[in-house]
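## Example record

The block below lists the input lines for one assembly entry, exactly as stored, with component labels intact.
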Amino acid sequence: MAAIRTKNDPQRYTFVGYGTDKYPALLLRGAGDLDNWKLATYETKHEGYIALKQALKMEPSAVIEEMKTSSLRGRGGAGFPCGMKWSFMPKDTPEKKLTRYLVINADEGEPGTFKDRAILEYNPHQMIEGIVIACHAMQAHTAFVYIRGEFLWLIEKLEAALDEARAKGYLGKDILGSGFGCEIIVHRGAGAYICGEETALLNSLEGRRGEPRVKPPFPAAKGAFGQPTTINNVETIATVPPIFRMGGAEYAKLGTPKNSGTRVFCVSGHVKRPGLYELPLGLPLDFIINELAGGTPTGKKIKCVIPGGASAPVFDANDLDCPMDFDAVRNKGSMAGSGGIIVLDEDTCMVQACLRLIRFYAHESCGQCTPCREGCNWMEMILNRIEHGEGRMEDLDLLAKMTPRIAGRTLCPLGDAACGPMDSMLKKFRAEFEHHITHKECAVKGRTLLSAVGQH
Amino acid sequence: MNHPLPPETVDHPMAPGERLPKSERTEFSAEAVAEIQAIAAKYPDKLAATLPALHIAQRDFGFVSLAAMKAVAKALSIPEGHVFGVASFYTMYQKHPVGKFHIQVCTNLPCALNGGAQLLEKVCAKTGVKPGQGPSRDGLWSIEEVECLASCGSGPCLQVNADVYEEFVDEPKLDEIMDACKRGEVRPWAQ
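Predicted structure tokens for the full assembly:
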């Protein structure tokens, strides 16, 4: 037994004004405090398990209605309404009793995203409470938490939190005397980005290779072990207890209409104060980067921002006025995704940045669909050629022609995820790619992003 | 630890598994089998225990050798081919021996923007090993270039074995981590 963090955490979780009515603290309460994960802290300081007591008194259908009222949208990337997702789960009929499962996606692997880790580390009980409420709403009696394998140190903490919850009767056969029973099983992954895709995750949970499945059938009809399954992100499920504490209608007032509530933005890259910022949806990107995160540490101009994790098409400096909610970001041609904001300053070579991202997708493609398996490798090879000064002008048209042949032609969105940043970088920063081809060197003189001893 | 392999000839082509290095152990201990079967009982289907069982195999065998995969298949009574397919899919199952301290450095974009690539070069220079090229001669170090350890806001970041997880790593901090390893303050690989 080791691994539970004993020294101070260098990550930033808070900012001036956090925890007030304007910026309510729902998900990252007490983050950074090493004892915050304990049940005693959650019960005494953070109104722990009050929502569960409320929800267990409600009918399952009323719980789902409350979720619909809150209009919470999934925080994993797609932004699908959570209450509606829960309502898709088939119900028991007099002839047939079903086994239903809830699966929590804690396979946080998207470059630029590090929010689930903080929730698991500091507020695991809030997630556990959310899981039990969700299980009650969907009448599922088993929940799986799929955590990426690298987080062994977090798994030990989560297991300790689960033991505390079991001892207090928040988990088990008869939860708080309601007659409803639920158990949580922690499943450890083994290092595959693709397992963050929900059907690949299900395959991995079943002990198979993490290859996405053909849809339909959707998981709500045939998911884990062939049974109806709902898959929710850690952040989504950790938002459930605050919704019941404050009421769905009250929660819906946060953020903007149709994009309600708060979400955790992960700010990284060239900013003075990188870290996690829990904010109501709809605040402008400019405010998050320049006011909260303090702009670039060197005072250089911002060249490019990736607004929703590495898979999102990039923004240039002209798009910084974009309000950060699901619809506004989509209207600007990108996606809010998992809330990872990566800031690149003017000295960053876009060819290198693009190559580094495409290398990641080429490495993580599961190999099942030819367009993605071959296409990502081809894109990597072409970009490598440009980076090494052997590029040809027609390479740029070749790259532009490749993206529509990959995106939308694969079982899962990994192919699209690789094409989004590639396509947008090429469109917005084409001059830099051309400079690389004609001058055989970077147009800027920043820190190199690629190591000379790379493995892949 | 790296056993030499017999040469592969046209007349005697090798199966993919035979190209893998061999481990000293070939069988699970009785306790490990019991542990795996207890895990399998938690799931609706014993196949689901493949991933946890391979983690246990890696702990006991030091790395996931072909013998380890066969032992997993035997402990769960599932096809050997299935276990091979799963073990070869996931990058965290080391199919080759690693050092006593396996250093994983993230070089993905958010870390690279803050010096991840330079950190990897420094780690290589200090240990004398290159990423993916097996352990150093004294068996102490091995290095892996990994994709995103979810520390993007506090990069560059590295992880040693399963326990040590360090953020904002600069040169003094790297020296500190390596000294702690040498002093034996870090749980060695596979224990």
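Residues 39-252 of chain A form a domain with the Rossmann fold fold (CATH 3.40.50.11540). The radius of gyration of chain A is 22 Å.
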